[in-house]
Amino acid sequence: MFKKVAAFTLATALILGVSTPQINFAEEGIVKKDKFDKEAYNSKEEVKLAKKLQKMSEKEIKKEQKSLSKQIKGLTDSELDRFMFNFVKDNYQSDEQMTENLKLLDIEFAKKKKGKDKQVSITGMNPADIDLSIFSYKRGTEGWYSIQSNWETFGGELSIGTLDLVSIEWDPNVGNYYTVAVPDDRITTKKDGTNRLNGIYLFNVRDAFFNFDSYAVVRVTPKKFNTKFHYATKYTHTFSVTDTSSTGSSSFQFTNSGFTAGYSYSVTKQTGIDDWDIFDDNDVTF
């Protein structure tokens, strides 16, 4: 999967005469401060397992079903979240095939099919530069469902604004909030859970990297059975419209007109900062 890198982007921008903000890469965590140890990450057992399963056919999985199921069962909740993120990310199997393969390993999986419009922008990010998806999964006889919002980036923002915002939203009439989880990647952090009983949890996304692929997870327990449970995610990307980059959190307000019958949010406009949203939704029957 092609990713835009800093050197290529800045060099191209300079050639085309595009103005770029003054960015201290070390300060922004791109070079030293938060250097991503890709080798250590890829050596994690759950990441290796996810990449292995991406390449396996249903027939191959059946041959190793007992061993693979045991590995899945032995994962902690956070390891399972990481496994699911890596299994879905860059997976060229159909959603139906992923669902069937995971079912063999006692994971109930729900993801809605959608098209992908991927492109790389030279002068800054646009909505097609982020592939946002949301899906749910339930392992074995566990009493909760995990709702994971994933985003994969195909470009980097030169005009950095405030921290991006992402929500996980759900119908609180059908599912009760149970708990929340974020990875330890220094990209995604919890922002606001004060309205979790109204079906929304907000997260910060630090987009000062040229690759800020990450995820967030909310776990819910069924309130009603034999009922469709609707959930959604909204990602708000902020960027500077001046010659300097910005820092700090995005200001927002909750709204009670969410897609899922629960709450949603809107970003408060700030001087010199603009934004755009992308959205995805899904459902599962409890």
TrEMBL record:
Residues 1-26 form the signal peptide. Keywords: Signal. The keyword Signal applies. This is Uncharacterized protein. It comes from Chengkuizengella marina.
